[in-house]
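Forum: Protein Structure Q&A
Topic: Joint prediction for protein chains with partners

I've read a bunch of threads here and the consensus seems to be that you should model interacting components together rather than docking separate models afterwards. I'd like to see that in practice. Below is the full input, 286 residues plus whatever partners are listed. Could one of the regulars post the assembled result?
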Amino acid sequence: MLGTIDRTSLQELARAELPGLYALARYLTHTPSAAEELVQDTMVRACRSFASLKDVEAGPKWLRVIMTNVWRDQLRRDGRRPEEVLVDPSPEPGRFSLYQTLADEDPLPWSDTLHVDFLGAFSAEDIHLVLERVPERYRVPLLLRYMDGFDTGEICELLSLPPGTVYSLLHRGRRHFERTLWEYANESGLLEQAAGAERPPRKEA
Amino acid sequence: MIRCREVVERLWTYLDGDLEEADRLAIEEHLRLCVRCCGETAFAKEIRNTLATRSRPKMPDDVQRLLEQFIEGLDAPKPNT
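Posted by a regular:
Agreed with the consensus. Here's the joint model:
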């Protein structure tokens, strides 16, 4: 059982981190109800080991480490080995440069800042939908690195993977993300909307 | 000097600070001279910023309410029955 001060500290930490914890849980589990369950299981485990948290500043990462461990335990219970889920047996995907594709295709011909405006056309919901399309084995390391700020060494520990594998997953993950941004923009009509919004009004004849 | 293709392949690792010093210096030397790769670098930073700031899905209101209630009740003493 936690003391009153510990409980209050944990509650404050949990409230402050709730949006970020839910976001990570959502990407790890795919549905809002499963994400809710993962956040709850994380909190229960955090309660049990709160005494091990010596530095409150480290609290946000500490909670995410716990969440990742709970998720790995859930995978094992479901008969999936986390190492297999995260290891990519497929050959290196083909080369793709979003920067070059945008320069070649010029989907926003009225823009003087094409690359920035392309990314600006995506809402947060669009970015979420793009990331949902990126395979799990790439999405998880990518989000731990760039959404939650873990460094590569920390990701190796979190996922029990060697550095070479994590570098490879991050590299492929970036490519998948860039390619999926381009595909999503074309399929969803995002570029037509952005182009329409930027197009200067037609002069009266 | 290393080629553009090598720079682009290693750009994110460079921005992550995960390259050996000799590789980092080779990329920086290339970037001092290559306008195109500077554009790639600026765009890579924008994409990373997008992941850092716009990738969080919104929490549904009902889920937020339930989780806030759950946090409120964390390890709370059970009422006497």
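The CA atoms of residues 29 and 46 of chain A lie 19 Å apart.
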